[in-house]
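Researcher: Here's a chain I'd like modeled. Treat it as a single chain, no partners, no ligands.
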Amino acid sequence: MCILDNCNTEDAEDCVANKLADFVKEGRPIVIYGAGDYCKLTISYFEELEIPIDFIVDLDARLWGGKQTGIIITSPETLRDTNAVTVIAVSHYISMPKVKSAIDCLLLDLGISDYMFVWDLFRFRYRYSVIDEKSFYQNRIEEMVSALGLLADEESVNTVLEIIRMRCSRDRYRLPYLPVSEQYFPIDFCKYYSDEVYVDCGGYLLENVFSLLSHCKGFAYVCVFEPDPIMYDRCQCMIERMQIPPYKEKIDLYNKAVSKEPGRLQFQQDGIAGSSRLSKDGMIEVEVIALDDLEIPYVPTIIKMDIEGEELNALHGAKKLIENHRPILAICIYHKLQDLYEIPLWIHSQCTDYALYVRKYGMNPSELVLYAIPPNRQIGGTLIVEPHSIDH
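Model: Modeled as a single isolated chain. Structure tokens:
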């Protein structure tokens, strides 16, 4: 059962700390599932609670035998017959049902009955944050007001204000959120066609490519960038298994990161949590491309970016493409505090006639997307699936 099932919001931290302390007294190991960024946050948090962590498990065999913050990483199979209490430190456990289902089934198979998702605890109080969010935004009121003034509807403004309130008060998100299945392809203010050319920066498991196919009833071409070697291999497998031959051949997959300038940079790998990113502390090196240097057979009509804080740099690297071809932009703005104002302000500085919308998806506090829609694609509530006249 979930450790938090019988905990009230007001005393969640104390409740979990007491339960975990009891498990430790019983001699049961405390284990973290997932060796990525959430793992680091969990270790730091549990040190504060004085709860020892016995070991970490991860699906990536290349990590086995290594350590995260001094704690050994091993195979999930190690959990079998241990009666361990498992802390799931995987960022997409809630927001991606397929990921949640896969982890739940694996833990069930391994005989794990007591578990918790780490964000269920973090969401009550952002103890992991090293920045005072309230002071951060208070010192940037002018920039925030300017960014809010660019947004096209009341829902966008209210969403951003609620995100700021949540971050500053360390309380939960209170506004309605949209289903993750609708993410990146809103139909209430943007029209789509059946021959879109889609550039996906941060391919992860290709779920957004399948969403594009569902929403637009087809596409002309898809270009996917996934720098994480593990996720790149999984994307390749998913393309090979596609049961829709006409579209299988229309997808190009690149094991590259996207940023401001081409080159090679260090990359921090996190093959399951979906939070791998460019980082000077990364243990592997990856090739980096700027979208202005992209050589594909078609002109992009939609660009999506979910690249763990590299979005603004990648937009700079796509400046000419955006100015010349004016694609729809779907850009994540939750990885850095300043994304809320820096990214909309930059897009407006390049394309003053774009309409800007912000929407929140899923249960966790992330998945915040800024949409920038050129005038010829702005519409309300209509889905157009016929081919359009854009010159590919």
